[in-house]
Amino acid sequence: MDKKALRSKYKALRQSLTQEEIEDKSLAIANQLLQINIWDKLYYHVFLTIEEQKEINTEYILQILAGKDKEIVISKCEFATLGMTHFLMTDNTKIKKNSYNVPEPITGLEVPDSKIDVVFVPLLAYDKQGNRVGYGKGFYDNFLSKCKPETIKIGLSFFTPEDSIEGISSNDIKLDFCVTNNHIFNFSQFS
Known about the structure:
alpha/beta; seven-stranded mixed β-sheet; two-stranded antiparallel sheet; 24% helix
């Protein structure tokens, strides 16, 4: 399937989930993450949940990171450049939804791409080779292309992978892992 068809398919699948299913699966995904050997790092980038899109609730991951005393990084989208500015999440961080209902920090201490060790990546669909389909603007591909090569990229999904995605371009950045509520898919040399 091509990216456009996959976006439609997985948006519809997400919309069919109840709030209880989203919470149960989100908690299971957070627990699955504890099995991956990534917890010796310092800077972890997490997307904040767009509830209207029925995304994974990353609050459970934020709780794990805070409990492990990690540096939590969140982003603000720059729509003019399709780039992202990253900020350290602290007790003083104020969050506001932008015009697309994306929760973002208003201001804060900026963190360069090169500091980020692990990125939890939002997605709509992914395949067995680690390719992903997002919402189509390229924010995450732009961001991930600026991270250091050893940055670990972990997709989070309620669903199993497609066999393959048609129309992958050279600008598309592959995932190292994708974690569902009952499986960890490893696409990389990391273990």
